[in-house]
Amino acid sequence: NLIDYQDCEETLFWENFLRVSNICKNFNPIYQRDFYLYQKEYCISNKSLLSEKSFLIFKNKKVVCGAIFLLTKSPNTNNPEINFGNNFPGIILISDEFSGDSIKVLQSKIHSLLELANKIIFTIPMNNILNKGYESILNKFKFTQEIIWSKSIYTNKKDEYLWRDIRKSYKSPINRGLKEQSFQIIDKFNLDEKKFKQIKDLHFKISGRKTRSDKSWDLQYSAIKNDSGFALTSFGEDKNDLYSAVYFYKTNHHAYYGTGLYTDYSKKYLYGYSIIWKAIVYCLERNITLCELDDNVKFKWISDIDKKLVDISFLKGGFGGNLSAKFIFSIKR
Predict the structure, then answer these.
(1) Beta-carbon contacts of residue 213 (< 8 Å; ≥ 6 apart)
(2) Residue 87: which region, alpha, beta or left (left: phi > 0; alpha: psi -120 to 50)?
(3) CA-based, 20 to 30 A from 195: which of 134, 201, 288, 323?
(4) Residue 131 is inside which H or E element, if any?
């Protein structure tokens, strides 16, 4: 049977979604409760959210499928789309026990979603094969597919091996930044709401305007308290004068670079290199095996992409790591 998100008690939904996530090896913090609440608030605040469309499918009282979706207005056309808002695809998780009537239930659900939107955009867990459940979708509905590349560092190595993998030109700025700055970690074990508010203030200072709701910041701090996120700040002699800050969402296996804030002073002296290195080392110390720095690498040869985005990808690529393919599917009416 099928249970929609809005018809399920929230704790029960996420308990079952976590079960199917573990079965399908979905350790990405983007598709977990705390980021979901943040993303929902982000879409509410920019008036793009129409409704929540996540669901679970059970077989013999055991969850065999889970999906994270929002019905949103496309920022370009204003047409309704099923995705995860703000250019994120939704996700469909299907276990190998998925078969028979469960396939019919999922196909029926997709039909009903297509009555609400022009297309459904979703991804699958990284390194996951397409089992017969996914095959049943692709055989039934018209779809297009796209591959994007993410850049991640496998932090299940000693730090000297991670250091060897860093671009040679980064090592001197990192060492200088480590000497000339102090750093503070904000995580479940080192909570500091006052310091976290300084990150919010730095965001406003750099942006020159308020770009996010207060609630979105509250949700990010709540994620830290739940051990689903962490932040790092750097500063000089004055602890109240931040040079830079980064925020990561996390699970026990996977950290995701969510926000990076760098003052002009920090950029001038390349202090951002050292705070990213500190975040990588933090993942190593917490036994987080994957540190994802760039979820959509922009390559130099891509002509129709903002050069700034290409430069950001090139900068993040200097910390080593590997490219991983992400499959994005679009099911159309």
Answers:
(1) 41, 42, 44, 45
(2) left
(3) 288
(4) none
> Tokens 């999906």 belong to which residue?
67
Burial class (CB in 10 A: 0-12, 13-18, 19+), 301: exposed
Contacts (Cβ under 8 Å, ≥6 apart) of 179: none
64 in Cβ contact with 57 (< 8 Å):
yes
- C-alpha separations of 327 from 67, 106, 124, 199 in Å: 16, 20, 7, 33
Exposure string over 307-325, b if 16+ CB within 10 A, otherwise e: eeebebbebbbbbbbeebe
What one-letter code names the amino acid at 279?
A: A
Tell me the residue ranges of DSSP E strands in 155-192.
Answer: 182-186
0.70 exceeded by pTM: yes
Q: Could you read off the pLDDT of 164-201 as tens digits, one per residue?
A: 999 999 999 999 999 999 999 999 999 999 999 999 99
Question: Taking the alpha carbons of 61, 132, 296, 28 in that order, is the dihedral positive or negative?
Answer: positive
Phi, psi of 321, rounded to the nearest 5 degrees:
95, -165
**Residue whose C-alpha is closest to residue 246's, from 222, 227, 254, 255:** 255
